[in-house]
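Consider the following input, taken from an annotated entry for Superfamily II DNA and RNA helicase (Weissella bombi).
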Amino acid sequence: MDSRFEERLTSVGFTTLTPIQEAVAEPLAEGKSIDALAPTGTGKTLAFTWPLLPELVPDDGEQLLILAPSQELAMQTTRVVRDWANVLSLKVLSLTGGANVKHQLDRLKKHPEILVGTPGRVSELIGNGKLKLKRLRTLILDEADELLRDDTANQIDQIWDAIDDEDVQVALFGATEVDTTIASGLFERDFLRIDQRHVEIPTAIKHEFWPTARDQRQKRLRQLATQKHFQAMVFFNTTKQLKITASFLAHEHVAMATLVRGDSSTTRAKSLTNFRKGTAKFLLTTDVAARGLDIPDLPAVINFDLPRDGETYTHRAGRTGRMGKAGLVISFGNDHDLRDLKKMVAVEIKTVSGVKTIVSQKATPVAKTDKTYQQKKHSGNQQRVATQKTGVRVEDKDNTQSKKTVKKATSSQPNVSRQDRLAKEKHAKRKHRKNKGKPKSKH
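Applying the prediction step yields:
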């Protein structure tokens, strides 16, 4: 590793590399083409950032191209890579669909050394003659199995046709195995396989199944929204169901954001920002966000709809419990769904009945200096304890005592029959009518 990187790592207290970071460092630095596999949340972006950036030459044009399957992942990768590129005085440019293309073209004229983009926008710029890649030294495919499928694979093919240089290093990264025949045929080379998926790493992700009828799943989310310091990404199989649920939660005044393919890049970026800041309780999305997105310390992932296969479950679950931290995956469904889920994934799944209290890792203690708040909190705790023991809130108990006092004061009067009371009221009304209009006597 470059000594400048080591100095920065030491300053932030980073001491241990993950298995994938250690395994790919030397082959990448030597210019080898690799097919690297590792579980989600194990630092794959930094795994290719640290070895490759020191090999680039400042002010020598576009030398490294990183492709990602979504705008969100491309922007996230841009932020991570730029942090380290600044140390070496290298420029990074993001080329994603939905963003202002004119601004991107203006930045391209400065010939940044590192490009991070989505296949659609990159192939568009190449097709229009706006992007030349003759100086390229390395091509990275992040989430390669996703990029080498269907229409995206055709865009990758167009990009590679513009490069067409056997000396260009190609590195495939992901958590799911790539079809080697497709990769070898497209890039006309053999790849060094580096598989770290079965290397033991510390993890604290719990997997739970919550039996829930389909018409009760929205209410489950509403109940979970009342829990403090709790956030979750909620995954759906269809955009239609996502939007129905979003409307329900909005009506229930639950703070949430949506991340849907087809929305503008500005809208999607705003949703992610709100969720990362904690102003949104839930981030509702389809599997567009199941790939590579990093939400630091995300407490939980919820499968509103069960994924269609184990691979998708793995990628969804990878949004929580990243880098060995605690995480929780909750899946909704019926008995049939539970059987399918157990066949789908080889993890221990606990069945949970009812909505339990979830203690989040993000909970923070109250500052000791805030005495007023502490007193209020202590008072509130006493009220909650009293409620749990008696079933009556303190304020309700006070009201009950007041009512008892009034009743006691009333009961201290002599007992009067209903007939006598009505006669007395009738007499008082007759006397009032008789004296109406007469001047009051002076004493």
